[in-house]
């Protein structure tokens, strides 16, 4: 007990210090972020962009799909270009061509090598010179550069407008015709994209050769190459990771884990009668299965748009389901169904753990269910209609699609979801309260479940921290608080604690050992995970020390994952420890799959792109998608399905259970995911990485690469894996349909209390 108290103290200290540093980094990002000019003018006095247009252009881009249609500074989708890299390359080519034709009377490509070299050197000097005047808030461009900017701006107005000459390019980008219809927004959008490219190439004040985005994207034309510190911190992070893994192996070797107890002769939960509130969670899990099917369906459509652009096997589906909408639903539903599975698990296990059914608990569970359903349906419908009807940036921010990956629902829906999560924490806390107050061997685990739930509810408030006019660097800072800390952080702590609690209730692990282990595991995970958030922010207009902090601490995130093979093997042994444990075979195998995908998807594929030098070349390419699919579904998705099966096991009549459906479900999901990642996504990412390293980020994301025969073949190679994966989803749906048609387990007689599990 004394050792456990010390671990809790260390956990509190590490969390406090880590969040203090993360908060300080945020203040430094605010101070060092690329300045937004009041106006951009040419040397002859002509105004290119007036005050407020960069901000208006940012809103217009987000309303047009934002990170669901291409990316800025590497964050977003992969079919359309990274607009920062695209603008930068187009502007450089246009300016170079202006000089070549005026001064040499010929196109640049026809000039001699010495002349080309001279113009290239002049180009770098021109685009890297910082002409921002802080006092007046003005960027002054040479007349030649202003002409190049106007030329690229015309291209962007036509692309996001309805220029018929660009129909083919829009199809390659999976963009609709007339994405922006407001002339003012069409004029403002190029201002934002210009600014993002200007910040990517212009030297920071007093730091020659270093842009505001630390020279991202790779663009040889303007001298954007990784600085020495990017490589140095990458090497240092690898060395630190190897040393930390060695230390963890030494720790495990010198601290022998206590053997698991002899399993009970019979299932300890066999006679557990679900209370009314526990039974009320049953509908949550059926909705989860429905959301999985919808998410997978949208994933199929979204992936196919990478080949046909506007059509689905010849059907002009994009007229009613644009790429930006299908991808939004695909990414948003992934988070929503996983979160719903975990929320329902908490509501199910709380009365079982405490033996207490609070008054009106069932009513609260029902109200929360319909509130969440309203939020999911409402946010999806309003985002879809807002996109189709071009409702504009104000509607997109408040009710429609904010255009931010994984956090796209409008602000009104975010507020409602935040209130719903706080209500969930309240329901969970009032059901757990007797167990939290009572001294027991498993109280530490129960406390961890409740604290992580409290963080899940509270930290969703980070989705409310940015506004319509927030600086893009700060939007990215707070967005990754939500995506990394909320989804990848506290949800994982919650789920790990719940699994440990379930195993102790089944008598398969000792509660005292689990108490210490879960706190120690949380310490190790959060020590790297909190500041590891910064690896998403290397090149988003942040100070260079973010590269050092993010690189080192994200390397530490891999350390606990390196031991998951051992834990997975021990869970496999537990699944065979007694005949009755076979009742929980498939939930336990899902937990084992979580360990595998944590190691492969989050560990190997994650670390493959997380070092600063790797991410410099790979950010925004399909290697990120390979890591995202393997980690999000492989880890959190399989965990959600495992918890779903565990809870439904206790909510269903034993005769209705169908292991014959769960076996193909499990293997199809895992094999299909592996095929999808390693036959299609990862090879496509490697092809793009070669293009990024040799030519530049603009080229890796250009139609020449994205729609090359090799890349389109790799997209088609997703089909076998997608089919296998979809079959697994159908088996899960059939399993759920079979349970839904059979009566649930009878409720406990009393609604005031239930027997302790």
UniProtKB/TrEMBL annotation:
Segments spanning the bilayer are 230-251, 284-307, 334-355, 367-385, 412-433, 445-466, 478-504, 516-539, 545-566, 586-609, 629-648, 669-693, 713-734
**Which top-level group of life is the source organism from?**
Bacteria
> Pfam families of this UniProt entry?
COX1, NorB_cytochrome_c-like
- Which UniProt keywords are given for this protein, alphabetically ordered? Membrane, Transmembrane, Transmembrane helix
| All copies of domain Nitric oxide reductase subunit B cytochrome c-like, residue ranges | 37-218
**Does the keyword Transmembrane helix feature in the UniProt annotation?**
yes
What is this protein's name? Nitric-oxide reductase large subunit
Species of the source = [Empedobacter] haloabium
Q: What is the lineage of its organism?
A: Bacteria, Pseudomonadati, Pseudomonadota, Betaproteobacteria, Burkholderiales
